[in-house]
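Reopening this ticket.

The earlier resolution said the output was attached, but the attachment link was broken on my side. Pasting everything inline this time so it's all in one place.
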Amino acid sequence: MPRNGVHPHKKFEGIYLIEGEGEERLGTRSLAPGENVYGEEIVKVGDEEYRIWDPFRSKLAAAILKGLHKIPIREKSKVLYLGAASGTTVSHVSDIAGREGKVYCVEFAQRSFRDLVNNVSKNRINTVPIFEDARFPSRYRTLVSEVDSVYCDIAQPDQARILAENLDTFLDPGNEFLMAIKARSIDVTKDPNAIFRQEAEILKKRGYAIEEMVQLHPFEKDHCMIRGRK
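Inline output:
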């Protein structure tokens, strides 16, 4: 593989493997060339720009490197993103979805939302910032068109219930979701593995199938990514 060579990931559409400085790293092709979102390295190949996807800054990148079998996000995807924060992972999801995709970004923290708008949404036409609380999907129901996947990273004690409410509202049967769980945000006294199983069970009781669970150590301590299906 040539220095700074860029090759499509063998498993995931819209994700690339980038060779440089003696290592192979994840990346996405930038939808907004010339724009840096969170200090990530940019690799230029011909007329294209690729953004290195840092697994220590993005739980989705960490899950991919830890062996996640599938992600329900690809070109033209319509994604509801709960807990968009300042937009680090959102920006890579935006790259993957492309110009014909859409990423509805729900965030309730004012400072994070401001960063999301200034650093991501103003440069990416496929992102829709929504300043709302994910606990109340009815409040933004009119702002979100049909989606084919939901990504949830909200670090709340009742995260699985909140996700289920959004899945009930927005996701059609047969479509998939991802949920990043931070065990310490749910209960600092319990074993993280017990919490991961507990959150999965909540979703199962709401009628959702759990397809896989991937722990994110060493990129994120006491974190797990769950992929499921409606």
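Reporter confirms the inline version is readable. The mean pLDDT is 94. The longest strand covers residues 171-182.
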